[in-house]
Amino acid sequence: MRALSTTPPGSRPRGTCAAPARPSSRLRRTIGRDEGQDKPPCATPHDGAAAPRRCRHAMSPQRCPPATLRTPSGREKFAASPAGRDVRPNPGEEEIMLDLDTLRSEIAAFNARGQTGPDPVARLYRERRKQWSLFTPRLSDAEIEALRPYIFCYERLPETPDDKPIPLRNFIGGEWRPAARSVVMHAQFDRRIPLCELPASDEHDVAAALAVAEDYWASLEWADEVVSYRKWVVQNFSRILEYFMEECLAEIRHQIPKTRLEAEKDFWEAKRASDHLAGSVEKAMQGELLPSLISGHTYWKNDFLPAGICAIITPMNFIYGIPAIQIVGCYLSGSPFIFKGHPFAAITNTTLTRMLIAAGADPRAFQKIEGFGKDIASLASDPRVKVVSVTGSDETARKIQEARGLGKVVFEGGGVNWAWVDRGFDESELRRIAERLTYSKLGFSSHKCSTLHGIVGPQEVIEPLTRLMNEEFDRWVVKDPRKAAPEETRVIGPLMVHKAQTTTNIQEAARKAGVPIIREGGKVLEGQGVDDDYVRNAEVVRPVILGPITPETTITCDWDGKGERTFRLATTEFFQPILCTMHMSNFDDFLRFSLLVNPYDLIVSVWTKDDAVIQRARAVLGGMLKENDGTDSALEWEAFGASGVGPSGNTGVGEPISTILMFCRRQKGRHLVFDPYSPQRA
Known about the structure:
Layout: H1 74-80, H2 100-112, E1 117-118, H3 125-131, H4 141-146, H5 148-151, E2 166-167, E3 170-172, E4 175-177, E5 182-186, E6 194-199, H6 203-219, H7 227-243, H8 245-255, H9 260-284, E7 288-289, E8 297-306, E9 309-313, H10 321-333, E10 337-340, H11 346-359, E11 366-368, H12 378-381, E12 385-391, H13 394-404, E13 408-412, E14 417-421, H14 427-442, E15 452-457, H15 459-473, E16 477-478, E17 491-492, H16 500-512, E18 517-519, E19 522-523, H17 532-537, E20 541-542, E21 544-549, E22 554-558, E23 564-568, E24 578-583, H18 587-597, E25 603-607, H19 611-620, E26 624-627, H20 656-661, E27 664-672
């Protein structure tokens, strides 16, 4: 996907006489200059001219050294483009809205004082908003580059046990504030490495964030904001994302170990969703005007009034994609929000917050806090919060709903996703199916709510398919995904939510219950063919295949050292590389299992050449139905989500209407003409 183009200098669409006049570039002030502010100190490690944009394929998370940057003119950029192509240039020097020298100096001063206190970019909001018009260009490369040492709160990501953790802060009221207590989070790929120092926020931090959000909501200033400005901000947010793609990919893989392919899925979900939501916002947020029904009456419906203060709680697996969808959707709705990302992704939580500020968002409209569970439970239970959007386990969503009573909770939960494989496929076709379903099972080391749980179908189909999948499992390697080459995709990384011993415990409990162990795996020990240093310092496992099981097969084992747990293998989400197999001769039996036994209805995969089976599935199954595809693919326009009636979730996200609607109130209007029209009236 190419970078978003910007409005070329001097262009003005026809028929826009009512639009705000574009200020002359000679008269336009540069934001951050001549505002009566003292010039900040400039003796900081980040001082100097902007660095050139890095090679798109550079993998190091370190920043480029300072170098002279000159923004080419629009004429030069056009001359360098292929002949005859209508290429819109990025903004030239006259299109840069920010005073780059002052901006660099203030960012440097902010970094020198430990990145605490007033945000140097947030303070520019009012002037940026004042100068904005429909003709304001999006951020230029020079402006984005100048923002680099602000957006990324670190010089480099910690790589060794001797490195210092990255200090992080809460963002409240336009300031970066530490909490009373902090916790050091260690790397998932090596628990010896201190990754970041996380604010362990409590009810006092939550109260401070809510007070700011309440003041902004009570001011009614949000009612004066226009969607076109918010759209411009999201377009800037998208530009910043793409400009720093390699830095974002490195950040993803360092916190949540995954292959480059899986990191790209995460990143591009954020980028594409930003483009998709902003590009469709006018269409998505349209109201409905009813036809004339009673003389002198007008009736309308508007489902897109800002809901009020919202809380956004996001998970550990897709740390750019899921937060970006939620943040952008809520921001476009006009609702102020408090963003609480997962502790594993705390560095990215800060990066995304600063990207939104840099893009031009009102810093009063959102806050960011870090923390853990019970310590910040008041964020979800406070009655001032009108909507809680949570992506995570159904257990978490259930606790939040209990605390909120009748208060609105929208959530995306987990999945126990089965694939039905029908008769009618030959050996070569089954091998293709096996390859696709193996990726559904092992991709991202099974850390997806869309991960394949098991395969089911007639015995004469499942037995050869299981053999072929077992062979496909042989092609996957156990290693640190960060060390995999860009083209390596068949990599099993460490467990991040559960202990490696739990995988072994499930396998052995299944064996004790009489379940055949088709592929033995579980916790990897030193001397078993995997790098011993990696094995000692991460939760490293090999995949397991169990079966056939029945819907009733029940086992008991210790779960993550927290005591014994009794559960059914067929209907329990693992978040571990454990594949179950099940025999069913009749498709209706599988439909009844999906409808009546399995409480999760996020995704069902159906592989068949029989149109009658397809039509039957479409008539019965809710959630996401994947026909002749794996369970793990998810694209924003699909409104990713379950049927809405079970523990897999009650919403769908990515698609503009459903995403923005989560953060809105409804209005139903009636207008009566005070004095009826008369041809004789003056």
